User: Fold this.
Amino acid sequence: MAIDYLPILILIIVAFLFAAFILGLTWVLGPKRPNKAKDEPIESGMIPFTSPRQRFSVQYYMVAMMFILFDVEVIFLYPWAVKMGQLKWFGIAEMAVFLLILVIGFFFVWKKGAFEWD
Amino acid sequence: MITTVIITLIKILVLLLILLTGFAYLTYMERKLLGRFHVRLGPNRAGPFGLLQPIADAVKAIFKEEVVPGHIKDKFIYLLAPVLTMITPLIAFAVIPIAPDITIGGYTLHFYIANVNIAILYIVAVTSFAAYGVILGGWSSYNNYGLLGALRTASQMISYELPMGILIVSIVLATNIGVGEGTMSLVDIIERPRPWWLWVWLFLAFIPFFITMLAENNRSPFDLPETENELIAGYQIEYGGMKFAMYMMGEYLSMIVSAAVMVTIFFGGWKGPLAVPGTWYGVLFGFGWFVIKVIAILFIYIWVRASVPRIRYDQLLAFNWKVLFPLSLVYMAITAVMVAVV
Assistant:
């Protein structure tokens, strides 16, 4: 029922207001003494000579892609898990076929070295 | 309708009060216990036994200058990131029942904010928003360390979400046993009957689940984002004052929420001797049992932090993908077979 979610909506609003309130409170109460050093990125006292907008290791993309693949799989498992009490062996057979395909893919990327970092 | 909204608002305020006090005294408990683990005293200056230390910390954070460094262009995202980190655990707590119901004058008072039928899926969905707080913070900081820390943390958090999700599916599977219909509502999970062998079997899942929770909350030994010696402070590097305190608050509140979730699904939530639904002392004892169980799990968090050294980043991801993920799949398969047999 959509009405069940009304308290959650109220909670989200209250939580946002609370966060804004404490940020605003410290904005009002804290001192304001700007100087040049506070405007620089922290890099242990040095002025950074590389931009943080560079290319980074492809491994992060690999992890993100693996995550999306297998997380979608997990989402499919939830409705199955709720109905498992009625599905019994039929449910197990169906899910075994589904998981087998994914597990083959999982071992393929494993052997391809997707989980090795250098 | 209007009464519902008013009662909900009161509940929310009480919940905020409990959670923020919990957060404040969790930092105190952590510092005190770490002190004891290191054979020193821990905070003991502010008030008796240092009990006023969290209040002193809060006052200090409030009176700090709000610095938004000039090199940051996306000021809105920069400010949004700690807010997101802080409020996600608050929102996730909505569906956790903290005491049995009680009926006063014909009105049944529930000790949770919402009972939605997908509660556990809701918690998984909401807590994964914490990854946005991390990655947006690190990205908008426009700092090399910040970016590296954010990438690492985001990879870590999304990787460990997989075994976590699969173990939660196993819990949902286990709710079928003896009833014939599964449930994802935390209120129902507590009330489902469990034979003794199921308690034991689910306790086996508690150990890998606890490990994934350590990684999800960026706690030691998986506190890779905060590797002080490599990344200074990772994604939090450009944050100071209250914004830093909000990141801290987010971390500790997620610890509390994770502990509450673990208590609810593995250890029966508010259940315990004398916690009888419908009586006033039942509510008190139920809440007491819940708090005691949560504190016990938080103690394990701190114990682990004091005992285990931080692991290397490649080991962290390899452990997740090569050990935890296959292990949780096997665990889920066995649980499914149990449901089909029983």
